[in-house]
């Protein structure tokens, strides 16, 4: 997250955070690579939807938003974090609609209360958001601690404006533990 915080501090959006773009060096330090889709953040400039690999793509891009914010990277990082616990991607769709349904099956159907600008997204004219949701969010990310589930839940919120910033993620109790793995029942592994 410190790498994402740095990128955002330089006013860039990576737009392709995924396991394949995270590299572990000999000092067990994760480095972010592949800046091919990165863009300078400017709220007045629309961006292409061809950003973020499908399984890590936030729902607003799946719903054709071209107003990408830094929260795009936070969603993707939340998906990567969930994948460390699951040992497989959190959302594994085969296309845009399949991905939307996979997201709804885990997070439930979005409401206007939790995402007030939902109906302003271009695809909402043509898409009806339906789908069953799982009984509990916790079931989608087995073996994750309460703190892990809480931080992931705050990283993959429907409303991009309500997602934590990279700095806020780093201030979360999950990162405040001196030895995170000792406090969890399960230590995530890299696939």
Polypeptide structure, described:
The protein has 191 residues and is mostly helical. It has a single domain, classed as Transferase(Phosphotransferase), domain 1. Helices cover 36% and strands 5% of the residues. It is built from nine helices and four strands, in the order H-E-E-E-E-H-H-H-H-H-H-H-H. The protein has helices at 2-9, 59-62, 71-86, 96-107, 137-140, 146-155, 166-171, 173-176, 180-183; strands at 12-13, 22-24, 30-32, 39-40. The strands form two sheets. It has a two-stranded antiparallel ribbon. A hairpin with a 5-residue loop joins strand 2 (22-24) and strand 3 (30-32). Helix 3 (71-86) runs antiparallel to helix 6. It is globular and about 50 Å long. The two termini are 19 Å apart.
Q: Into how many domains do the coordinates divide?
A: 1
* Contiguous helical run count: 9
Using the alpha-carbon principal axes, give the shape. Answer: globular
State the separation between the terminal residues, measured CA to CA: 19 Å
In short:
The protein has 191 residues and is mainly α. It contains nine helices and four strands.
Keywords:
4 strands, globular, 191 residues, two-stranded antiparallel ribbon, single chain, Transferase(Phosphotransferase), domain 1, mainly alpha, two-stranded antiparallel sheet
């Amino acid at each position: 997250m410190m790498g994402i915080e740095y990128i955002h501090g330089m006013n860039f959006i990576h737009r392709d955070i995924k396991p394949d773009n995270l590299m572990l060096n000999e000092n067990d330090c994760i480095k972010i690579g592949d800046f091919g889709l990165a863009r300078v953040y400017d709220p007045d400039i629309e961006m292409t939807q061809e950003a973020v690999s499908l399984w890590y793509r936030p729902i607003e891009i799946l719903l054709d938003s071209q107003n990408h914010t830094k929260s795009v990277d936070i969603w993707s990082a939340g998906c990567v974090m969930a994948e460390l616990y699951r040992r497989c991607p959190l959302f594994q769709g085969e296309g845009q609609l399949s991905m939307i349904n996979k997201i709804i099956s885990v997070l439930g159907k979005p409401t206007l209360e939790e995402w007030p600008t939902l109906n302003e997204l271009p695809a909402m004219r043509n898409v009806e958001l339906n789908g069953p949701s799982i009984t509990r969010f916790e079931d989608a990310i087995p073996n994750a601690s309460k703190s892990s589930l809480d931080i992931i839940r705050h990283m993959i919120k429907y409303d991009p404006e309500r997602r934590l910033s990279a700095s806020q993620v780093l201030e979360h109790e999950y990162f405040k533990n001196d030895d995170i793995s000792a406090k969890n029942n399960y230590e995530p592994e890299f696939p």
